[in-house]
Design goal:
Number of helices: 1
Low-confidence stretches: none
Oligomer: single chain
Mean pLDDT: 79
Shape: rod-shaped
Strand content: 35-45%
Strand order of the largest sheet: 1-2-6-4
Distance between the termini: 77 Å
Largest sheet: 4 strands, antiparallel
Number of strands: 8
Length: 139
């Protein structure tokens, strides 16, 4: 009788062990991994004068407001000049070239645009967001 009880206890322990192992294996098995490819954020810009004279500069204050905390997210700047000519630069660095992408090192910064033409100027500044070397989201 003791043998039967001991055998039953061993079988019960083996069954419970296999059941727990099965739960672990089942919980680790996932067909669809969730990969974040959209890194939402907002951009706040202080008002900028519409008219500037030749050789005059304007300050553009920009603040990036992420809508989450994503590790290794980097921000980039790109600008396009449509009318007129001018220089856009970050503080006292070399001016940016239109259509090129430049990394941003802070989420709150100032750009300076200097007019170099007598005619009106028109340009846009884009802020891009993504993991380094793999940009995912454009504003």
């Amino acid at each position: 009788m003791k043998n039967i009880i001991n055998t039953a206890k061993i079988q019960l322990k083996c069954f419970l062990l296999l059941f727990v192992i099965g739960l672990f294996v089942q919980s680790c098995e996932k067909d669809d991994l969730e990969i974040q490819q959209n890194y939402p954020f907002k951009v706040s810009v202080m008002p900028v004068p519409k008219d500037i004279a030749k050789d005059q500069y304007v300050e553009i204050r920009i603040k990036i407001i992420p809508e989450g905390n994503f590790a290794d997210t980097k921000y980039y700047l790109r600008y396009f000049q449509f009318e007129g000519t001018g220089k856009l630069q970050y503080y006292n660095t070399q001016p940016y070239f239109p259509n090129d992408i430049y990394p941003l090192y802070e989420k709150e910064f100032r750009l300076y645009y200097t007019s170099t033409s007598e005619v009106s100027q028109s340009f846009t500044v884009w802020i891009l967001c993504g993991i380094p070397h793999n940009i995912h989201y454009v504003v």
